[in-house]
Amino acid sequence: xxxxxxxxxxxxxxxxxxxxxxxxxxxxxxxxxxxxxxxxxxxxxxxxxxxxxxxxxxxxxxxxxxxxxxxxxxxxxxxxxxxxxxxxxxxxxxxxxxxxxxxxxxxxxxxxxxxxxxxxxxxxxxxxxxxxxxxxxxxxxxxxxxxxxxxxxxxxxxxxxxxxxxxxxxxxxxxxxxxxxxxxxxxxxxxxxxxxxxxxxxxxxxxxxxxxxxxxxxxxxxxxxxxxxxxxxxxxxxxxxxxxxxxxxxxxxxxxxxxxxxxxxxxxxxxxxxxxxxxxxxxxxxxxxxxx
Length: 292
Prior knowledge:
- The protein is mostly helical.
- The chain is 65% helix and 4% strand.
- It is built from 15 helices and two strands.
- The protein has helices at residues 15-22, 24-43, 49-63, 65-84, 87-90, 98-104, 109-128, 134-141, 143-158, 165-184, 191-205, 210-217, 244-253, 269-276, 280-289; strands at residues 227-232, 235-240.
- The protein has a two-stranded antiparallel sheet with strand order 1-2.
- The longest helix is centred in the N-terminal third of the chain and has 20 residues, at 24-43.
- The N and C termini lie far apart (75 Å).
- The relative contact order is 0.05.
- The mean pLDDT is 86.
């Protein structure tokens, strides 16, 4: 019989914190035993020792989702404090903005956006307007599905324009479907009620598989990318004008095969020109266009 070997990996460079984080396993096991005792008392079923062992370990795995939620809540709280107090600018590293500071701490731009939206917009709405328990909702939906729902749910809750065309289209379609269903039932919904019903439906959708969630909230296909391949000696330059949906598609599909270098040019034309001159591929194109 093959046995598994547990890896001794530190969860943090700080030894004391690492031991504390990994020590949570004992508490998870205790909670799993409590859950099993409750199941046995309620359904009266007869299970073998091996079945009980499987139920314990898999339930323990499920409860680790709570650690993901705790990480989101704590990150959200700290990011809120850092931004509110302007701590990124007074830090000795003198970070230019919150995005730069977060990136230095290993938090990507997309993760930063998701955490802030969940903490500042979605979780308060679920708790204060829908009066639902955040931990239970998180357990039903999971981290991956919440990540896909964030943009659409934010648009539904706030009514603010979404950052990209496809998300805005999804928000409009979901709200229109809620309105059409209410009319068919002879009901009239005010704006707040319409948004509340839409969020509740999205939470139901979130309990489906990840593929089904994406199909429900993004039924439209992302437009094909018009890519320009420019041959230059032994090199090929790839140039494309992408919207936010296409950027997300490329990043997802080429994950592990692409190392994107992101440059955000300032709005000031002169400053943008200076920054652009530091980008190697743009310098190459400019040199090609220069007329002697």
